[in-house]
Amino acid sequence: MASREEMILAVKAVQNQFLTQDLVQQCMDIQRTLAERGKEISLIRIFEKKKLLDKHQLHFLQTGEGVSLDLSTPQGRKAIEGYLISRKIGQGGMATVYQARTSELRDLAALKILFPHHYGNKRFVEGFLNEAKLMYELQHENLVQGSDYGQSSGYYYMALEHVDGPSVQDMIDEEGRLSEEMALHVILQVARCLEYLGSKGITHRDIKPDNMLMTSSGQIKLCDLGFAKGADSAGEGEEGITCGTVQYISPEQARGRSDVDIRSDIYSMGATLYHLVIGEVPFSGADGMEVMAKQVLEGLSSDKTKSGMISHHMHYFIEKMMAKEREIRYQSPRELIEDLEAVVEGHQALQFEPDSVKKTLFSGEEPERERSGIRRSGRREGGRRQSRVDGKRAETRRREGRARSETSRRSSRRSQGRTSRLRLRRKDKE
Ligand SMILES: Nc1ncnc2c1ncn2[C@@H]1O[C@H](COP(=O)(O)OP(=O)(O)O)[C@@H](O)[C@H]1O
Ligand SMILES: [Mg+2]
């Protein structure tokens, strides 16, 4: 009989599309038959013996670690050509993020490496390269800047500007909830980034505190374009496909509508704002499906929003951003920015002082850590608490470009200038 741990492992193997449910069932039957004959053997051993999983898939199932670089060896630290990796800083649903320095300039970078157990899935690889290309090409002060991407030692990676502060989720984890001035400071900057993305016809589709990072000077940078949908793929969305993180997902995104637009990101920003000032997500439930159903059907709990816990204008912002009907929401980030700025300007008390953030959060050279009391949480490395709907992720990532298998990387954008750095043939990335 498969143990509870083995059952969890089997579910993970199916969820990650390593094995079909039928195949897992067959292996469990073999395990049971052998046990009846007095031969105990673990399920993972059967997968291994039958060569059903590659070493990366086995490693992920056994350890939960997406990328297994051994940073105690020079090979591990130099796995990505042109970089020296020092430590792991995060792990999301698709990738592990490491801190590194470029070999030439010794500049700090964040290297996001796609989990190798997804390399057999062409759509995941294409999706990752699509994200890398967007991060590289887009440029806004409130968006993490990509500087390089490609393949090295077999790993698909993208190099990003390294953000040295906590994520907004880390801040909530640490503080419970944020002050209204800090929350408005965060939302205003993300709204400016959304306005920029909107001008490029891009919908982010995974706006949440985990994907907002704060620099040591208090600036907010949005990251993770893993679900982003561009103008060129506007007709591509399929009815019934859902992606995002259920706690922040808009009703239309939860329903799997194909014509999701920037107003969906505005809803997710409203859900984020709710979380920031109330200290809990707007809707929770036993599982992702229940939470999604509430996003579609259930009104915001008025005892939370009207309890006097938050100001009138905050209540108004949240209600307007989180309207179930997107026609009632702010119609564009610009509209929202104007309202937010009016409130911030009109209320001295709400004016954000970057220095006060610095003082509170970062009191020394090593901003992230001990003295500030705000650190990158363990969860950051250990996966997410919220459930991100990524089973159908690949559906959102079909690109016209092809992933190339040979080494294809750009050297540092910073060192050589934007266009000269393109070592990969342009058509491969367009
Ligand atoms: N540029 C960066 N600088 C610092 N930390 C980062 C950076 N990019 C990502 N991270 C950390 O790694 C985590 C996972 O990255 P993310 O891009 O969200 O991956 P995923 O697509 O797998 O969710 C983030 O939540 C964040 O904590
Ligand atoms: Mg993420």
What is the gist of this entry?
By secondary structure, the chain is α+β, with helices and mostly antiparallel strands. The chain contains 18 helices and 9 strands.
Keywords:
18 helices; 430 residues; five-stranded antiparallel β-sheet; binds adenosine-5'-diphosphate; two-stranded antiparallel sheet; Phosphorylase Kinase, domain 1; Transferase(Phosphotransferase), domain 1; 11% strand; 3 domains; alpha+beta
What do you see in this structure?
Helices cover 40% and strands 11% of the residues. It has 18 helices and 9 strands. The longest helix is centred in the middle third of the chain and has 20 residues. The C terminus is likely disordered. α10 packs antiparallel against α13. It folds into 3 domains: 60 residues, no CATH class; 88 residues, Phosphorylase Kinase, domain 1 (2-Layer Sandwich), CATH 3.30.200.20; 242 residues, Transferase(Phosphotransferase) domain 1 (Transferase(Phosphotransferase), domain 1), CATH 1.10.510.10. By secondary structure, the protein is an alpha+beta fold. A 5-stranded antiparallel beta sheet has the order 1-2-3-5-4. It has a two-stranded antiparallel sheet with strand order 6-7. It has a two-stranded antiparallel ribbon with strand order 8-9. It binds adenosine-5'-diphosphate and magnesium ion (MG). The site of adenosine-5'-diphosphate has 22 residues, from β1, β2, β3 and β5. Adenosine-5'-diphosphate (ADP) binds next to β1, β2, β3 and β5.
